[in-house]
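Mods, move this if it's the wrong board.
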Amino acid sequence: MKRLIKGGLVVPDEWERLSNEDLDAVVLQPDGPLQILPLAHYRQHAETLRVQHPRIGIWLGPDDEPEAIAPYLNDIRLIAIHFPVFTDGRGYSTARLLRSRFGFTGELRAVGDILRDQLYFLHRCGFDAFSLREDQDLLAALDAFGDYAWSPFSPSSPDTERGPVESTPH
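Not the wrong board. Structure tokens:
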């Protein structure tokens, strides 16, 4: 079984991420495995999926806007944000918007070409789970959370300790 980093631990990944091509060969079942569907497929079949398949997550590509899933956030347990290459930073903004503007409280997972050096900053933007490439050592990647003076898995972060940022005239 594939593994990921979640809550500061390496744990088994209970979810299966399906591509558009996979959906042609898969029959979704209400009591079947936990599955992550592409946003376009979810939106096309939202009413049916919400009722018949409550164990569904959504994955967003770099071009998908968080506003597109706002109507469904109460029904979604997991959102996976795909990073096709580690230099594509759009997922950071998407995560931040989902947490701060839209109030998403479910699992927010970074997937794709993610590097150890990005984990701390991904967490700061709201990610709480990380599915790294197969060639990366997950236990070694956990050390990334200790690279800075505070742990992202502590009850408060520097943002909450400092309070809101106020602008000052220059």
